[in-house]
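Structural prep section.
Before we set up the soaks we want a predicted structure of the protein with adenosine-5'-triphosphate in place, mainly to decide which crystallisation condition to try first. Input record follows.
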Amino acid sequence: MGRRIGILGGTFDPVHIGHLRGALEVAEMLSLDELRLIPNARPPHRDTPSSSPRHRLRMVELAVEGVSPLCVDARELGRDKPSYSIDTLESLRAELAADDQLFLLLGWDAFCGLPSWHRSDELLEHCHILVLQRPDADIEAPEALRDLLAARSAPAPEALSGSGGQIAFVWQTPLEVSATQIRQLLAAGRSVRFLVPDAVLAYINAHGLYRASN
Ligand code: ATP
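Run finished without errors. Recording the tokens verbatim:
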């Protein structure tokens, strides 16, 4: 029987409890063998203040230390430009066995933007998609996704079978925290304690990250 591997891409600038709690809940619900957090190379237009790829990677490493089955996959930072999801999926697939199952976790907003992604119609050849749903999300899917949802929806995450090809929605404990909010608090000299793991907070303080002068 193949392994069950979830992937959650993000800027993680910095990683916070919204990412971590969501990832852990999905990993438990689907009995995943691994849930890899994959820090993205940052698109050049992104707002500052922000931290370097090295700092973002280190904070994710600290956050998942000893938290099985969460782990870090640094492959996108090894490239000199932002990766398309399809490239990452192809590179992961090249390392996995044919019967390993890949689950791509996407927030509802990200999922709604899927039709504009590079080679979006090929994504489901490599993985299942898990849409992280929230109680206050607009449930109505955009027109461009209706046919895809009609053809590929599974009734529940537990019903996903095979190595990929289906879409399911997962509900999670809502935690309205964002990296933007954390950067703003830090820039204003306020505390972010309990919004990030203590080890991440210690790293932010030790390196003076996200201060107004950076
Ligand atoms: P920023 O505020 O800088 O845009 P962010 O907090 O949204 O960052 P990202 O690194 O962009 O974090 O998010 C990576 C993934 O984690 C996305 O799929 C996003 O939907 C999801 N995510 C972010 N925050 C939360 C949260 N509070 N609860 C659940 N999922 C989240």
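Observations: The first strand starts at residue 4 and ends at 10.
Flagged for discussion at group meeting.
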